Each structure stands twice: as C-alpha cells, then as structure tokens.
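Private note to self, pasted from the team thread so I don't lose it. Backbone tokens:
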C-alpha cells in the first residue's frame, strides 16, 4: 500500500515511499532471525488444503448461520488500493467451534492453547454409507473398526469424519440438502462416537466434512448432543472440512490456522494436512 494516493491518505502528503518513512523512523534496528537448530515439529513432503473457499454464495445453515457478505469497497481506480470488507458469521466456511459455543464459562477460541492446533490427523471414512443414507452418523463401531486397521487413536489427535459430503459443495442445494419440506439432511457424529472419543481417547478435537458436528436430524429436535460432548475442556470442533480424500486415514498432521479475535465462540480457519 505504497502508492502516492495511499501515502497521501495515510500521512497527509504525497510522493513519499514506504522506505522514506522507514528511514525517518527512530526505532531500534531490527535483527535478522537466526535459523533454529531444533527438530522440526512437522515432517512431510505433501501438503493438502482441507479448507473450502467461501464467498457470498457459500451454503450456510440458515437461519442458524448468517450468510457472508464480502464487499469490494475500495479499488485501485478509485482509492489507489484494493480492499474487501468482510461481514461474516463466526460459523462461516471451514471453521472451528470453540469450547464456549454452547455454554457460558469455558474458554474462548483465542484462549485455546496453540499447541492444540497442530495434531495427528485421523480420518474415518463413511462415504459409502452416507451416499445411501444422508442422515447417517459416525458410530463408535466405525471408530473401533478403524482402530483394528490402524491401531489406537494417538493422544492429541484431531479425529474427523469423511462422509464424501465435500463433493456436494458446488452443486446448488446439495450441501445443505433440504427436502421438499425444507428440512436439511446431512451426516454428523453419533453420540456414541463422540462419547468414545472424549471419554476413552485423548483427542484435542473432532471434525466433519459437513455443516455441523451433529447430523442434521439432531438439530431438528434441538439436541446438538455431539457438540455438547465434544466441546469443552479445551477441546474444539472443526466443521465444513474439505478435500479429506487427499489425505491418508492415518499419518498426516493437521495444522488449524484459526482466526484470533477476542472472546471468540467460533471462527473461520485454514486447515492443512501435511504428510
């Protein structure tokens, strides 16, 4: 943002560059960071983006979630720079549900320990079943079958359901999947699966590739039980995860880059799978 027009708006004068103002600064000179000799926290040669791109047309679970409004309010021709104004619900696109989402008292999203956002990624696939039954849920038996192939879920893991729902995102109406009566239908975590992960496995978070941790049928009866079980005690949820078919069931590391705003109940995030 160093054009003469921008400089005039910011400093009240035109024609100076950012370098000119930096030279006038009396700040202490910066030192160049030295490379660390520590062992890398993450190893892997492939990176998958597990995040949906969202815009004003991103399907949200109305009226529970407000539609995003992205306004290109400044452009180069008019102001000398480009900028968007974002009006977004915390539950927009690929996002985190924080511990305080459903009750007052637990920590806000900006208070979650940062090391909990880097976690072993465990992907449990139920796509074949979800293709036939849009109201299906991830069950405790699904988790135990996964463990019979891969071993026990590692401590500190992010465990996610892959129902194949990501493939619906570009088809109008298919992602929320409302029937003729306007009732949505999509998979989520079963209560028994959530309870197993929380009480018998030391997970940091659980996630889904659908609009909610809970299957839509639970939301219709106002019983978001999967949310209530998972969230709390520094645990969080991740919803609307994308591209899970591009990562292995075990062996990837998840990195969750959550927006950090004060007293957050939830927030959009960028999720990577590294393996």
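Design output:
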């Amino acid at each position: 943002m160093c054009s003469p027009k921008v400089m005039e708006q910011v400093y009240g004068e035109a024609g100076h560059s950012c370098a000119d103002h930096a030279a006038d600064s009396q700040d202490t000179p910066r030192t160049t960071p030295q490379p660390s000799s520590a062992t890398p926290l993450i190893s892997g040669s492939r990176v998958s983006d597990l995040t949906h791109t969202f815009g004003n047309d991103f399907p949200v679970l109305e009226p529970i979630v407000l539609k995003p409004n992205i306004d290109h309010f400044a452009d180069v021709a008019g102001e000398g720079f480009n900028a968007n104004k974002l009006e977004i619900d915390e539950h927009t696109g690929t996002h985190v549900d924080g511990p305080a989402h459903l009750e007052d008292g637990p920590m806000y999203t900006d208070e979650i320990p940062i090391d909990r956002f880097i976690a072993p990624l465990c992907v449990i696939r139920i796509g074949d079943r979800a293709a036939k039954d849009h109201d299906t849920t991830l069950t405790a038996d699904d988790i135990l079958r996964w463990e019979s192939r891969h071993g026990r879920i590692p401590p500190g893991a992010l465990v996610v359901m892959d129902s194949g729902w990501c493939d619906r995102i570009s088809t109008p109406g298919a992602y929320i999947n409302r029937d003729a009566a306007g009732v949505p239908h999509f998979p989520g975590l079963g209560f028994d699966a959530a309870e197993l992960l929380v009480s018998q496995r030391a997970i940091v978070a659980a996630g889904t590739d659908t609009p909610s941790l809970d299957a839509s049928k639970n939301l219709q009866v106002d019983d978001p039980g999967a949310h209530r079980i998972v969230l709390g005690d520094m645990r969080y949820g991740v919803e609307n995860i994308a591209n899970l078919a591009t990562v292995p069931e075990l062996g990837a590391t998840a990195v969750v880059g959550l927006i950090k705003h004060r007293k957050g109940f939830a927030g959009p995030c960028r999720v990577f799978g590294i393996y």
